[in-house]
Amino acid sequence: MSQHNPFKMLVLEVALAVGMIACLVGAMFIHTGSMPPLVVVESASMIHEENGEVGSIDAGDLILVHDQPASSIVTFAEATDPLHPAFGYEQHGLEGDVIIYDKNGEGGTPIIHRAILRVVAEQTAVPDRSSSTPCSDSGTYDALLVASDGLPGTCILTWSVPGTSVMDVENITVAFDGNEAGYYDCKRPAHAGVEAHLVVENWVPKHEGMLTLGDNNQCSVDQGAEAVRGSAGVHSPSGVVGPIRDAWILGVAGGEIPWLGTVKLMVGGPNSYGTGDVPSSSFMALVIILAVVILVPHATELVFRSWLAGAPELEAPVTKDDPYEAS
Question: What is the pTM of this model?
């Protein structure tokens, strides 16, 4: 009987495991077009139910990141506009796409929030490129938007918001009350001038891009109090994030693999968010999954061994003494 080499067997098993992981990651890359193809949700900013639910984005979930053109992203405003082709489009429990973006394009931990509306420049003017205040009092200077002279940098004089009635205005005011735009529920009681629905008021954006919001953030938008009264905003080293430029977008949230990202949060080290925002039901589901993964192969092996042990083909044949056997 040949002797098995333990080291060789270990190398083969490790190579098999690495190959299987590589095939899985490769398949997800082909499907999503982005690398890495998955992100772990770390906070509760997108949670819909306190105990978590499959379909919405909870802390500890893995989310597929799809690389797709920024122009194809559907905002909440567009998805709730009966006249828009994308009317009724939903992702992860609410209208519109959920995007993953870098804060002000500066790296760090990405943010995964819903695209609420897109601000688009309408009337523009060529800036005074020799001045420290290129737009003076007329318009907002966007350093990246190409002006009519073909150079980057332009003065934006008026704005429009696709999916709403806001067209060609100097500052943006839109109430998501079901009349001016689709109804966005802030999940808070109205009090002291604070509405129960989302209201963008007298906002002059820093540049073109998208206004974003976590589904669980009670209308505290990422772009801060300049856009929506009382908003804390999302901060980067350079300050509160501006409207999300296309170049900052890492991808669009696709399919959800619930619970499994909790493992990464548990071993994430001192800079990790940890598991404080992970719903308790996710831990129970994770334990069940791990138990199934560990126990099912052993149970299957026992069943097959029991079945094979009773197979007549494996019974030892009855033999008689060979009369020609040498004595």
Answer: 0.82
